[in-house]
């Protein structure tokens, strides 16, 4: 159930509805919008007397949300949410490009990539310090040292930083350095991790599980939001299919489909979605054409020698060539790219 408050509803009216929900043994979660506040009711809704709420001051309407996710549902907010990542809006009129290496390898590598990505027009820097690798003997990332290098790159370039967190015990450490958490495909259903990042207010880039359906994806977002963190950005990064030429199958259906189902912004990751450097530019253009709020790209000054995901990493020069093409596609679908 969601309770839609009138435009300009008084603070006391909102508080009164919230405490009434609490008194019924349910949990109120407010979604404060620019124009109006919507209060989602979490728990067994059979306990709720709709008429009581409908009659309260400043309540516009009480609506059932039939989907299993409530806070993430499009019904609870008609316009796409704009999530600020270190001051950069994601989900607004501007499409954002997030760029950087798969893994932070050294201070020089991340600072150089950040400078060149920023000069090409990227707005946010990516780089893994904690890497969830398929094999335990593979490079696991520079961990805390990698986080420090990311912070240096942010100071040098002004780009906000997104980096993956893989363990609930590292959430507060990563939060000290990052502007946005990344939850990777393997952890999309790690509910303890989702709840832990939900306890913070730092934005979360939630990547789709490689086997996840849209409902499961949105329920993962709901785990974060129901803990009180509304700042979730979704990311389609390809799913496992029978095809082996590409690493994954980039499911661009997800972009307009998620747009229908949810108000959360959605990005696309054509690097993991294809696994092949030669396909990344085409699928980035397709992602923006499909209505994505931006792309996240693996970029490295020397991609062939990247320590992780070399096959799908593009060069800084490739990024610079791609940007004006992305800009043209963005304009064709009524969006802007870059500042
Ligand atoms: C990554 O972004 O480098 C990564 C590991 O992504 P995913 O979780 O989508 O595989
Ligand atoms: Mn990677």
Protein model, in words:
- 35% of the residues lie in helices and 20% in strands.
- The two termini are 39 Å apart.
- With 339 residues, it is an alpha/beta fold.
- The chain has helices spanning 11-23, 50-54, 107-120, 144-157, 171-177, 191-198, 214-226, 254-261, 270-274, 277-289, 316-332; strands at residues 2-5, 27-32, 37-42, 59-63, 83-85, 88-90, 94-100, 124-126, 161-164, 180-183, 204-207, 232-236, 266-268, 294-300, 314-315, 336-337.
- α8 (254-261) links the parallel β12 (232-236) and β13 (266-268).
- It is globular.
- The structure holds phosphoenolpyruvate (PEP) and manganese (II) ion.
- Residues 102, 128, 132, 184-186, 207, 237, 269, 272 line the site of phosphoenolpyruvate (PEP).
- The site of manganese (II) ion has 5 residues, from loops.
Question: Which helices and strands, and how do they pair?
Answer:
Elements: E1 2-5, H1 11-23, E2 27-32, E3 37-42, H2 50-54, E4 59-63, E5 83-85, E6 88-90, E7 94-100, H3 107-120, E8 124-126, H4 144-157, E9 161-164, H5 171-177, E10 180-183, H6 191-198, E11 204-207, H7 214-226, E12 232-236, H8 254-261, E13 266-268, H9 270-274, H10 277-289, E14 294-300, E15 314-315, H11 316-332, E16 336-337
Parallel strand pairs: 7-8, 7-14, 7-16, 8-9, 9-10, 10-11, 11-12, 12-13, 14-15
Antiparallel strand pairs: 1-3, 1-4, 2-3, 5-6
The site of manganese (II) ion has 5 residues, from loops.
């Amino acid at each position: 159930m969601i309770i839609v408050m009138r435009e300009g509803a008084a603070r006391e009216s909102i508080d009164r509805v919230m405490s009434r929900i609490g008194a019924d043994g349910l949990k109120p979660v407010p979604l404060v919008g620019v124009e109006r506040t919507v209060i989602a009711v979490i728990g067994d809704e059979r306990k709720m007397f709709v008429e009581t709420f409908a009659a309260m001051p400043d309540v516009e309407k009480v609506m059932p949300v039939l989907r299993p996710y409530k806070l993430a549902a499009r019904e609870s907010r008609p316009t796409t949410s704009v999530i600020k990542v270190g001051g950069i809006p994601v989900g607004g009129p501007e499409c954002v490009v997030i760029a950087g290496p798969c893994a932070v390898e050294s201070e020089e590598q991340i600072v150089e990539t950040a400078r060149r990505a920023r000069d090409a027009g990227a707005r946010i820097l990516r780089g893994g310090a904690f890497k969830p690798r398929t094999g335990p003997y593979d490079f696991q990332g520079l961990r805390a040292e990698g986080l420090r290098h990311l912070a240096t790159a942010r100071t040098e370039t002004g780009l906000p930083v997104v980096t993956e967190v893989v363990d609930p015990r590292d959430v507060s450490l990563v939060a000290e350095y990052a502007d946005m958490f990344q939850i990777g495909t393997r952890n999309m259903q790690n509910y303890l991790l989702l709840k832990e990042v939900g306890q913070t207010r730092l934005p979360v880039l939630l990547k789709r599980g490689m086997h996840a359906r849209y409902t499961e994806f949105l329920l993962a977002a709901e785990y974060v939001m129901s803990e009180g963190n509304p700042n979730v950005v979704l990311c389609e990064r390809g799913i496992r299919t029978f095809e082996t030429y590409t690493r994954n199958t980039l499911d661009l259906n997800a972009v307009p489909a998620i747009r229908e189902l949810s108000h959360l912004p959605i990005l696309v990751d054509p690097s993991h979605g294809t696994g092949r450097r030669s396909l990344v530019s085409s699928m980035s253009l397709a992602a923006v054409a499909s209505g994505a709020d931006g792309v996240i790209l693996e970029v490295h000054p020397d991609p062939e020698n990247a320590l992780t995901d070399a096959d799908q990493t593009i060069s800084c020069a490739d990024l610079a060539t791609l940007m004006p093409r992305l800009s043209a596609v963005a304009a064709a679908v009524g969006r802007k790219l870059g500042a």
